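Below: protein 1.
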Amino acid sequence: MPDAPQDNHAASHTPTLSVMIPCKNNEGTMGRVLNSIRDIANQLVVVDSGSTDTTLDLVNAARRWGTCEVLLIETHWRGFVKTKQLALDACSGDYTLWLDSDEPVSPELAEAIRDAMKRGVDGATVNRMVEYKGTLLKHCWQPEHRLRLVRTSLVQDNKARFAGIDPHDYLEIDPPHAAPLIEGVLIHESFPTFAQHLENARRLSLVSAQSMHAAGKRSSPIKLMTSPPGAFIKQLLLKGSWRDGYAGWLCAATSAAASLMKHMMLYEMQHDRD
């Protein structure tokens, strides 16, 4: 009996990649993020929640690449998990890469993503490193391994989805071991000044306190006293952020401040309710 003919088209098929990016007023970083994925993206899915700067001009400029479909969804802010799920559901490439609007892809990571797709993995985990005041932090918040690449068919089968409690969202896949760690890093471009970083920590601490309050979680004087120094010691000593120089000290201090603000806000909310 003769061998069945090979499907040469299937054998030579190069997987397509959708890149999803939620954003709002990110003109300072969006250009670098888009340039970093120009050579690997076949579809760009952007969910914008009301930008008033030039962010959308940068997104629309990607239409001139000629190699990438651009899908722009303009909507109100739905929260971290729901907004990102909206973007994920709109992706149609063979694979989907999740980026935030301040996370350019390193050349090494771009090559690793190509390789992972060619190997047919169901998903891939990436290490994210923070760049703070021109310093790439090698210790503070390290390692930060996150699932960032998934086979889009798993999303359609509800085997890959966003989960978590705002603002701590994450992408999950069933089974979790199907997403190996790949080479390269995702660079998180943080705020240029400590004041801006601290203001962002305040905003996220409020969201976190609101989510915890809605879930029935409580704070206490003990947590007010112990959580902030615990966060500081974790980054400074256990993670070794002091080796990142003065930027590492500031980031450890921001972690402590965020912990303090979160528990202060939660403590206030529960007493206002009581």
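Below: protein 2.
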Amino acid sequence: MAQKILLRSVYGKVGMIYTINPCPDKNGKFCKWVKRVDSRGDMILTEAEKASDDYPYYIPENKEFKIQDGMEFDLSKPEDLSVWEAIKNAPIIATSRYEKDANGNYVIDGNIKDTSTHPRNGIAELYVDIPGLESENRVKKSQLVYEASKLIFEDSAEGHLKITKMMGKYMENMPASDVTEFLLEIAKRNPNRIIKLYRSPDSALYLLFIDAKDKHIINLKNGFYMYGDDVMLGATENAVITWMRNKDNKKLVELIKQETYPEMYTKDVKKK
């Protein structure tokens, strides 16, 4: 957890005061600092809580906090930590400038693809600005792009075609430079996808599955992938890979390889 948190008003409403009450999490629970109050407005505390070192920092559930742009919370200080934990779940506060909700809409800007005359904005007006976090994330992304690009440049043209095939792109008839450029563009946008395809221990099995399916050695019958007429591999691609990974199926996987890549086994026989 970052030691310092800075709240920013996204619309530049400098000096504007936001009144925020303690907010429970998505399960309806308050943080440990927030306490229920009785009919007189007094916090309901146990004897242990009254004797605790945390006692000075407990917050009544109905307390109002005045928040504005530029307010900083030093989380190493219990007086700041307790307040931040109490208000951080408020709908008006976004965890970052471009946080998205469960539907993929920005909690601040709403649906940015909405081009109507009355676009709907999000509900948040404040966001968490952790000093150095954005630049740190950009550096991490650049490192991943570099790593993914390096894997592409160090691979062969044949290897590039295998990667694109696993991505659902059949580019055998395209110039090698076009294939490389395509992969580099993916690396810029989603470097983790490229890295996973190159380094996942399941990539070879996935490529085998694709090639076997293309050659009708593995076929989809009645909603299940089948090898031959009686070997059921699974209902989904992931299920098939799980089946192939199972050591008990090693001999059958080898048979699928032989039927899918007969030329490889012919070469091996000639060498011997």
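The mean pLDDT is 90.
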